Amino acid sequence: MEKLVRSVTPLSTKAESGRTNSSEIRTDLRICRRGLAVAGLFSLALNLLMLTIPLYMMTVYDRVLTSRSEETLLMLSILAVAALVAIGLLEAVRQLVLTRVAARLQTSLGGPILDASLQTGKDSGSDVQGLRDLDQVRQFVSSPLVSALFDAPVAPIYLALMFLIHPHLGWLSLGAALLIVFVAIVNQRFSRKPLAEATQHSAAALRKAQVQARNAEVVRAMGMFPDCVESWGADAARSLKAAGRASTRNAVLNGLSKFLRLFLQIAILGYGAYLVLADNSLSAGIIFAASIISARALAPLDQAVGGWRSLASAHQAWRRLQQQLRAAPAGPAPMALPAPEARLSVDKLVFLPEAGAVPVLKGLSFSVDPGEVVGIIGPSGAGKSTLARLLVGAIAPSAGVIRLGGDDLQNWSPEALGPHIGYVPQDVELFPASVAQNIARLSGSPDPEKVVAAARMANCHELIQSLPQGYDTVLGLNGYALSGGQRQRIALARAFFGNPRLVVLDEPNATLDSQGEEALIVALRQAQSSGMACVIITQRTSVLPALSKMMLLRDGQIEAFGSKDEVMKSLIRPAGQPEPAGQKANADTLARITARFG
Ligand SMILES: Nc1ncnc2c1ncn2[C@@H]1O[C@H](COP(=O)(O)OP(=O)(O)OP(=O)(O)O)[C@@H](O)[C@H]1O
């Protein structure tokens, strides 16, 4: 027994790591199915043992009371108590198995579901609904309703017993059972649509609330509370309305089902008494036993009607989970590739946010050699951030190819490519973890030497030393709050962690002060001398000294690309005009350029 329970026990290491591959998921689901089958067998045994009470009652009334045998009474009582102990044990083990199955589901699917949410979340806005769905399925599997559902297949055995007791009582019970099943079907038909609507609107309301909570300060500063509440409330109200519709139908049909069950008990007692009066074909003990057996035959059906809402919601959650897992890119992991050379090449790159949409990037081709720092400028909406996200593999190109060291980024798994890439996005958000863990990309045991080396490269070692607990300062949620500039500098250290081959920085100096900008220039020069390929998107002139090449992006196309001096000269000199003598690329020139494009 213990072995059986252990076989569905979640593995703590897996729960902690959260990593599960598809063959492990299949194995886990097989184990869960086996656990459910075992729970089903227990249910069968339990239900047969449940006959103890009617049998005991029948024998005591019909045999013991007539024979007046105390010995028989004692023996029957001992047997009945033994059966009750077995019932108690089986019930406990069944519940334990179901709880473990639920936990195994969580540990097996939790990682892949979060993984799938992270892969598809940003584009589809699906957020972490998958984890909530998984929680719902887990709670359902370990709920008493599942035990009731396991009892349902035994109902025909009880009905057969009723026919054995008396065919009329059998027909009566069968009629009531069919009526309850009919009520269950009607319930399902009428509550499916409103339940789906309720779930959909409640997920939308939750997503809105999450975004509002993330922007709490903006909301507070600009007095947006009423509008936020109204916007959230519209979805929450729709969800409540739909859930209310489902509940009302459920309540009415639930009441009808309960009435049928109780009515059957009275009908059996009444009709049984009539049979005794009419032809004395039944004894009093049998009538009482028949009443109990019929009640047990209908109880699981009745419970299924009552718990239909949870059953339907859990079923919908399970289907969503399956869809999400199917939607996440699967298949065999790409072959492990050797560490790439720091050479980026982009060929005819096209990006469409969705099929049929206007392309954001229209066939870009360029390359960045090791030790080069390319600055990308261009007006707002030109596609700079989209290009950055493509270069680091955060999104996939619609057409064209991006190669790092000759290998297409699409041929790398994100886990294998990640260590070779450094990325600072436009909106820097750090994770709720220590500064060291943030720099080490959330590693549980960050390598101190590599962390400090990255911090030194990003010129933020002294800044981190000045924090209350230095590298161990915990950030985010209830932790230490950094300024925008401090966050950007630590994000820069995170980008440099582990000496990546390609570093892409999307406006990393947007909130830096002059000291921070100087530090950024030093960092870029160090990256350059260590042979990294760097791409920096900027609207500010201060990084100009660190650039070796420049690109002007406009309307998704490269308008100019080449050495810093060439690009700047081409920008300030109308086509066809001779080059002004001694013109030097300097900060003022870039200021004029950015004034034109910003
Ligand atoms: N997932 C998406 N769905 C729809 N449109 C998108 C998507 N991603 C980008 N775009 C569109 O692509 C265009 C370029 O966006 P992008 O953020 O790359 O511009 P940008 O040059 O970085 O602008 P800025 O300098 O203001 O940050 C915008 O018009 C944007 O609306």
From TrEMBL:
Instruction: Name its GO BP terms in alphabetical order.
Output: protein secretion by the type I secretion system
The record ties this protein, via SMART domains, to: AAA
* MF GO annotations: ABC-type transporter activity; ATP binding; ATP hydrolysis activity; ATPase-coupled lipid transmembrane transporter activity
Q: Where in the cell is it found?
A: Cell membrane
- Tell me the membrane topology, using the record's own terms: Multi-pass membrane protein
A Pfam family cross-referenced in the UniProt record is ABC_membrane
Positions of the ABC transporter domain = 344-580
Where does the record place the ABC transmembrane type-1 domain? 37-313
Whether Nucleotide-binding counts among this entry's keywords is: yes
Q: A Gene Ontology CC term for this entry?
A: type I protein secretion system complex
Query: Chief localization class?
Result: membrane
Q: Which residues cross the membrane?
A: 36-61, 73-90, 140-163, 169-186, 259-276
Record keywords, A-Z: ATP-binding, Membrane, Nucleotide-binding, Transmembrane, Transmembrane helix
The answer on whether this UniProt entry bears the keyword ATP-binding reads yes
Extent of the signal sequence: none
Which NCBIfam families does the record match to this protein?
A: type_I_sec_PrtD
Q: Per the similarity annotation, which family is this?
A: Belongs to the ABC transporter superfamily.
What is the protein name for this chain? ATP-binding cassette subfamily C protein
Q: What is the lineage of its organism?
A: Bacteria, Pseudomonadati, Pseudomonadota, Alphaproteobacteria, Hyphomicrobiales
